[in-house]
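Q: what sequence does this backbone want?
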């Protein structure tokens, strides 16, 4: 395999510059030669108003608010780029003023953008769904008149139905909404409180939705799978398999075949459980032909035994935490568990400026620095829920103020696995074939539009799989260049990377 990096640079709305370059490099390293394939959008310093959605091999859509047309109407611009980041079309769309973009979904040549208008003095919250049919370049805006919920997340659109998870602090619920007829059904329970809606999946063949959630009542807590049809009618409720030694911490639901779901998550062993933020391993089980299989547990002890003592010590600390997310490639399911902890700094001023209280000088002040990431454990499962591979992936010098998934992965059709994350302006990656290390962990800087560009700082920089063997790197950068133009610019950017 080789890596080929290309970038096209655009500076809107005035300058349009095209750069193309081909370079072939060994599979075992990331590298770039300037200029890469890059789309660049200038904006006001420290503003973050640009949004984008991958359209698979149809390209990418970038959209943002552009002008206030009236007291009631705001103009948004949507730019469609092809799979080489070459601009195809620019669309100007009218949306209700003060509408805020929340989420998106793309399937069957249709992009769905979900917007919400905050409540006004004389009006309630309003939600809208913008449909863009790429096949005929047609836009439709649906006023979701019967959807007044505020804390919406995890949307999915199939046919004419919108499936939404509501994460209100007071109550959590599931909404099945037909945006063509404005009919709605909300799934809640009188005798049970939904403490967490962990994940949901849609089976388009059987026209079923599956929600994994945690509930509690006077008798205690439990985890359940809820099966509904598209209209929201509950067809089945099943309590997760019981194991007297296991406490469920999370649950990710994945459709893996006809009449077959795989549920994967973190668990805590009752005897080993020391704190709520950390768990003992990863479990898996099937939901096949409306029945659960036996639970399979995979302890982290096997990974810790062959890795450093330092990581074993970290897992015993009281403030450690773990987060798990799921990826699918080649009919396999990958569980990525990230280990991190909240880091603090203690500041103490000189004694001449410190105040002297009743108990003496005031103590040092503890200030939150961010979440310090340590490493990731990656497990590979087949369609039966059997673990086929496991890896340890160290995370170096990552400290973030806001929490989000750091480590990502991609596996090609030949079974070679790429693990990666972005730290500031660098892509950190490692290549594996099973347990064979094709290349050790390396860091590669994200290339700029010009060789003389210097990144002063960056934010929200991530890399995501795009389509086939292509990736998108996105984020914001403040760039200085004493040899070109006005010398400095703050931009939102997209870089394309190709794995060959």
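A:
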């Amino acid at each position: 395999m080789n890596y080929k990096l290309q970038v096209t640079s655009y500076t809107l709305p005035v300058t349009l510059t095209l750069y193309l370059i081909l370079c072939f490099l060994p599979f075992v390293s990331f590298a770039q030669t300037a200029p890469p394939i890059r789309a660049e959008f200038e904006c006001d310093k420290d503003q973050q108003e640009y949004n984008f959605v991958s359209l698979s091999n149809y390209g990418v859509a970038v959209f943002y608010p552009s002008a206030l047309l009236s007291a009631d109407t705001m103009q948004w611009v949507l730019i469609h780029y092809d799979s080489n980041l070459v601009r195809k079309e620019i669309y100007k769309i009218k949306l209700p003023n003060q509408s805020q973009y929340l989420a998106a979904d793309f399937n069957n040549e249709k992009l769905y953008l979900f917007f919400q208008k905050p409540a006004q003095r004389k009006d309630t919250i309003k939600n809208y769904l913008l449909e863009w049919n790429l096949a005929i370049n047609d836009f439709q805006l649906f006023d979701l008149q019967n959807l007044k919920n505020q804390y919406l997340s995890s949307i999915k659109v199939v046919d004419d139905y919108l499936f939404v998870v509501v994460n209100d602090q007071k109550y959590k619920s599931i909404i099945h909404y037909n945006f063509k007829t404005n009919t709605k059904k909300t799934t809640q329970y009188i005798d049970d409180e939904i403490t967490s809606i962990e994940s949901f999946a849609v089976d388009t063949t059987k026209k079923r939705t599956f929600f994994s959630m945690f509930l509690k009542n006077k008798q205690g807590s439990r985890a359940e799978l809820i099966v509904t049809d598209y209209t929201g009618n509950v067809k089945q409720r099943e309590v997760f398999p019981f194991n007297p030694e296991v406490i469920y911490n999370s649950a990710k639901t994945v459709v893996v075949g006809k009449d077959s779901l795989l549920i994967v998550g973190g668990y805590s062993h009752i005897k080993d459980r020391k704190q709520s933020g950390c768990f003992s391993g990863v479990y898996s089980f099937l939901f096949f032909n409306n029945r659960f299989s036996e639970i399979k547990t995979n302890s982290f002890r096997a990974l810790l035994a062959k890795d450093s003592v330092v990581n074993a010590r970290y897992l015993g600390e009281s403030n450690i935490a773990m987060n798990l997310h799921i990826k699918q490639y080649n009919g396999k399911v990958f569980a990525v568990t990230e280990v991190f902890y909240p880091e603090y700094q203690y500041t103490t001023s000189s004694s001449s400026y410190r105040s002297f209280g009743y108990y003496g000088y005031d103590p040092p002040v503890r200030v939150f620095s961010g979440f310090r990431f340590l490493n990731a454990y990656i497990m590979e499962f087949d369609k039966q829920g059997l673990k086929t591979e496991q890896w340890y992936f160290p995370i170096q010098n990552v400290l973030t103020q806001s929490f989000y998934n750091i480590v990502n992965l991609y596996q090609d059709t030949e079974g070679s696995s790429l693990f990666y994350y972005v730290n500031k302006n660098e892509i950190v990656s490692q290549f594996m074939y099973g347990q064979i290390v094709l290349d050790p962990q390396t860091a590669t800087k994200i290339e700029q539009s010009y060789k003389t560009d210097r990144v002063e700082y960056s934010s929200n920089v991530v890399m995501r799989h795009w389509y086939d063997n292509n990736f998108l790197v996105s984020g914001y950068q403040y760039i200085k260049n004493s040899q070109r133009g006005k010398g400095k610019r703050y931009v939102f950017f997209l870089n394309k990377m190709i794995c060959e």
